[in-house]
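Practice problem. Given the sequence and the SMILES for NAP, write out the predicted structure.
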Amino acid sequence: MTAKLILGKDVSEQIYGELRQRIESLRSKGIVPGLAVVLVGEDPASQVYVRMKGRKCEELGMHSVTIVMPESTTQDALLAKVAELNADPSIHGFLIQLPLPAHIDEKAVINAVDPSKDVDCFHPYNVGKMLIGEPEFLPATPAGVQQMLVRSGVDIRGKHVVVVGRSNIVGKPMAAMMMQKGPGADSTVTVVHSRTEGLADITRQADILIVAIGKAGFVTADMVKDGAVVVDVGTNRVADPSAKNGSRLVGDVDFETVKEKASMITPVPGGVGPMTICMLMANAVSAAERRAGI
Ligand SMILES: NC(=O)c1ccc[n+]([C@@H]2O[C@H](COP(=O)([O-])OP(=O)(O)OC[C@H]3O[C@@H](n4cnc5c(N)ncnc54)[C@H](OP(=O)(O)O)[C@@H]3O)[C@@H](O)[C@H]2O)c1
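Answer key:
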């Protein structure tokens, strides 16, 4: 059996179609959803993401602001920029691109963002709201994974979901979301990480296996149950002399062997990747609707 592919491009196009209608409806009321992204320093990967976010905003007819600050920016100067964006009525949501330079306290910056504009869902208020099942925002990558499962018709309720990885931006919120009561969740969740004993015995029990650890090809076919749904969040750049730039992107799952065992699988690239920006845009639109009382 070769697994059916779950493609982020297809699922995100569906969601962008819905977002376009919501944006049109806001614009007809004189509201243009505004998203700002703050980039501190010159990390090349961050520059690419920030450019992609700006381009997508404009494509959707949203107001897009990109603020680039030098690597030497002080924490006070960044906090002042956050305060400015908190107060700017044309901005419904904003985020500070991570990672920040080492001299800046990331937590202090995240805590300074007005929770009603926290489209990354990193502020402890929003993390808490998500955990108690009253989300105002959902973190983009786990929300993207959930949408991929739901929109691909995966039966989630009552199933065993194993999440590999426990980071604050992927693993932990993913687990919290899948254990909530209600549609798209209601599953039994196990989280495994680098200190887990007998990890493969646990992943083999997963009906839905979600992997986010950042280790190329870590999950091999022997770690996967026959017919499982496998979601690979990992993005790892590995050397490939045959590729034009000498490297290529691979996931945390050994795609070629696991696809022969799984019933559905997300490839890398082309799987979860496109969903993250899409769900970020969805959060910005929700923030604008909420402010408008819609
Ligand atoms: N597609 C997207 O849009 C998207 C978005 C976000 C992240 N990602 C990718 O997803 C991956 C994970 O990102 P992250 O931010 O969650 O990473 P992270 O903050 O580095 O966390 C990695 C997690 O994996 C666990 N881990 C590491 N090695 C392990 C091992 N050998 N066995 C079991 N668990 C292990 C760690 O365990 P401990 O807690 O015990 O250290 C940690 O909980 C990365 O490749 C990243 O690039 C992709």
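Check your answer against the key. The CA atoms of residues 38 and 96 lie 5 Å apart.
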